[in-house]
Amino acid sequence: MLFKSRNAAFHALAAAAACIVSAVPSARARAQAPHDDSKEMEHPEVRTVEFHGVKSVKLGELREALSTQPSHCLSLLFRPVCLFSKSPYFYERRYFDPLEFRRDVLRVLVFYYRRGWRDAQVDTTVARDGNEVRVRFDVVEGPPTIVDTVVVSGLQGVMRQRRGRRAQQRRSGLRPGEPLNMLKLDTAVARIRTGLLDRGYGNAVVEAPKIDEDTTAHRARVTIATRPGPLTPIARIDVVRLSSKKAVSDETIRNSLTFEPGQLLRRRRLAESQRALYESGLFRSALIDTAVATGPATGRTVCAQQAAGAPTRAAPAAAAAGQGASAPHDSTKNVVVCVLEGQLHDARVSAGFTTADFFALQANYTDNYWLGGPRRLSINASVGNLGAQQLNGTKPFFDVFSTLPAGAARESRYLAPTFQLGANVQQRWFRSPRNTLGGGVFGQRRSSPGIFVDRGYGANLAFTRELTTQVPLSATYRFEINRVEAGEVYFCVNFGACDFPTIDALQGQQRLSPAALTGSISTADNPLEPTSGWLGRLELEHASRVTLSDYRYNRVFGSGSTYLRLGWRRSVLAFRAQAGWVKALASTNQAVGVSGGDPVLHPSKRMYAGGSQSVRGFGENELGPRVLTVDPNLILGRKIEKGDTTYACGGGGVTPAVLRSCFQQRGDSISDRDFIERPLGGTTLALGSVELRVPVWGPLLAAVFVDGAILGEKALSELGKGTGAITPGVGVRYLSPVGPVRVDIGYKPKLTERLPVFTQLDSLGTRRLIDLTANRGCSSGNTAGCRAFPLRESASALRRTLDRLTLHLSIGEAF
């Protein structure tokens, strides 16, 4: 088959060609595909579809534009199965349709034509082999039609002028020297119309582009004519209800709008107001549209169409078209707001689990119209760490401690239930539709396994201003009476506070009262399972005497994610980057009752890495600076048999020197299970991730990812000296109504690490922390004499491989 498009006569020729092709099949096709009366022979299976000569357009997009597709495996993961089975659960059979194939020839020509190649030619071959066919498209692209100039007329004095041709190129999306792409031209028309409507020209008209083409030279001149018309202010606003329910007052609805009578009608303001009505939780549906300016502007016809389920224009579309019932010559616009009220009260109870937090229960109550105004009252209660005592260390749950030595009752605090109680009130549209004022009270008990237990209660105050769509800026203040419980080794290693009076002071009640400024932006298409767009967040936090805080510090944390939709089976490539820095202020020590040493930093403000939302090759908080602790009785080899106590080392004399000596002699004989890992966190963090998400079958997705992070101390310039790792992995997602249920397996490339070891000595009523590896050359920045952990010298190859794998179960994407 041979088809060729010829410039301005393309549409006529294409129509004629369609009629000819539908009646007369290709001679080559007839020769290679003899007629058969059976249904199977009339519709043989498509084995392959090949393209030759495609150079200037994206081959993947061209393939997707055609109806003729080859039979294929439903997923890359199913390909090994498809070698042996062609079950419809794994394999999709595609059959040859002669009519659609003839149309595909025209689809190829149209595809090229719309992208600027107006002289493209297509030849096809259909090779028959039994009940299978192999299809081939041979494309001769020819020369493209190049844009010489782009002129946009009618905008003088209307839109802000930029200089020369560059301004017109930006508006049109086309540049001289590029192919005449009709898709870009369509986008340009919509962009110009949107710009006019956002400036208050409600009757703006953008005419279809005029293309003057030199078919011999393959050059084109594009002219886009515009007629902005007069500015269109809003004459009046009417509120129409779609039901008899009237719990929400008209005043509340009007206060949510970002426009008012007398202001210019702008498309962006209508869209923002409609979104504000939806997000308030007060309405099941909301529509904002224009109504007749010369008659009674009740808009009931528009609202009645919506109530009846008839198609209606969304606010942006109505404004973008500059239409509605208004006549083109109307210089004012009336706006109608159609609302259908929803349930003002909501109560929910949920349950779930993660590998790090065990089981959890959560209950929420929300009143969206508290005290008869646009105030949202939220009461939240949650209990976590349920079942930790019984499930700790049971696969797949996180092992807080591999074993609990003597004194385990003191460590059981990490396995006790956590909770959070809170009541918050939000005043929406506080003095402006863009403002939200909120406050509340709270009480909580949080636990970071093996690191600290944080108890606190207090109050918070927040003010949020939406700078523009999906760009909120929040200022918050949180006053909290806080108490931190952690192992003595945590304070000794992190703060240099190894004497117990200082540690006791740090574990007493202190004030943690930071002020923070948080900004975020979102262009993602889906909050639960984003496939395109990007997210960004920046947090600035300060605590000092001015904020009535005992713990005093400055903290900066930023994160960003972007999502790219790939052409292959709707796959998504996602990227994430995070960076953080925190520094304690010198005045903290005096405020919390610590004398000397480095400034103390609250453990919850330190940076941690590792876990289902971080570097997935590690468990929760396992990446970064850590130490090991061990029971002194294990070092001495203490045994009690028939009432007699014996020691394998030291003869019962317990002094720091004896413990260090015995550890040097017996350290390697102590099982890895007898050591407890203590994450210490860092003050600087850099983290990055890349993940490929591929649809497999129905709601199932597969993922391949690589996570990496570096956690260090002090300045960002010294971050390279910190602890870091890069971990690859694979995962599966199930798309549920509440978000993706995620199973990830991360691979830890480094199995053995060298860590310092501490133990606690209780002697004559005095408690002391002893660094068992200090005299072996193990110190900060020098791990030569540290304990190799895990040791596992006798472990099998299979055991070592399994030890490198970390399983995570959770709900919601990692980023």
TrEMBL record:
Entry's transmembrane regions: none
Pfam family, any one: POTRA
Keywords, sorted A to Z: Membrane, Signal
Domain Bacterial surface antigen (D15): 418-748
PROSITE patterns: PROKAR_LIPOPROTEIN
Compartments (UniProt record): Membrane
Signal sequence coordinates: 1-23
POTRA domain span: 44-142
Membrane is among the record's keywords: yes
CC terms in the record's Gene Ontology section: outer membrane
Keyword hit for Glycosyltransferase: no
PANTHER family hit by this protein: BACTERIAL SURFACE ANTIGEN (D15) DOMAIN-CONTAINING PROTEIN, SORTING AND ASSEMBLY MACHINERY SAMM50 PROTEIN FAMILY MEMBER
Protein name: Surface antigen (D15)
